[in-house]
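Fold it.
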Amino acid sequence: MTEIDLYVDPVCPFAWVTARWLLDTAHGEHTVVVKQMSLAVLDDAQYVDAGHEPMISRSRRFGRMFAAADQRHGPAGFVPLYLALGPRLHPRGPDTDDDAAAAAALADAGLDTTLLAALDDASFDSLVVDAHRDSQQALGARGGSPIISIDGQGFGGPVLTAPPPPHRATALLRAVIDAACTPEFAALQRPYQGPPAFTTGERDIR
């Protein structure tokens, strides 16, 4: 059984697609743990253009809530909250209300809704920094969301723009594991393919 850790920023749409693919495809055959990293921490002290600033702000706020949930409920609370929040944030529309999405996700995940206050509580920032540091150590370098570690071998990605069909999803997972377990394999990347696409169900939840 392969041990797989996936580090995601909760607001990253590419990571959301990757996480759903991985969780849906592993089917208990592999051990998958989804963990937190932070685009806000990654870009701390870096220039962020105006177009990306809203995402960095969301990363900072939601990162605090996830850190608070982990502190109160332990790592087992991460995936239920992440799966409840994702459809409410992605795809993002002009009417998306972050606070309402957070409150609904906490309720759906069965977590204490008082955790909503953590969105604007900077006292959780140090916990986010710690979680992000773990992601960078797993990768062995500075990297964004998502990061995958397979039996201790870290890579940036995989970045998906849509969930693959079932037969390709399984083949992709096998290929990713094979690549990670090949010591000589270093990197594989193609040019940017555009923003992620989402399923009908994800479009319907608000």
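Residues 137 and 154 are 9 Å apart (CA to CA).
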